[in-house]
Amino acid sequence: AAYGAAKGGVIALTRVMAVELAPHGVTVNALAPGAIETELVKRMHSAETRVVYRAGIPLDRYGTPEETAAAALFLASDEARYITGEVLAAAMGALAAGVMHAARRPAAGDVSDKCRAMPGTRWQTHVRIRHTGITKPCTRYFHDRS
Known about the structure:
The chain is an alpha+beta fold. It has helices at 2-21, 39-44, 47-55, 65-76, 94-97, and strands at residues 30-33, 87-90, 126-129, 134-137.
């Protein structure tokens, strides 16, 4: 919860600062990278975890620190002088894929427990991926069957 709240705070602060600093010719933007192949990630992400992450990434790979730096340099460049108050999601299409990114669903054997229907909706809530301890939204992997 704290991680999500911190990200929300950064987004809100970015937007507020963009409005307040615009009269001074200052642009304010944020960068929201996706899964990046850092030394920490290399140590922390098991092969199973990587399968889960890559299932939600249309470009089917982790990003590099150099690619993240290039996005940051763009936002700081003159080419981005008209961009302010934005959050650039450098996430290899993961946010664009949304719930219908079905081409890369985990195999049936990767799902360790059944999805539960959310009360009052036709969508299902969460699925735990076997051997990873990671819970992901069911809607990313399953279409509405009703």
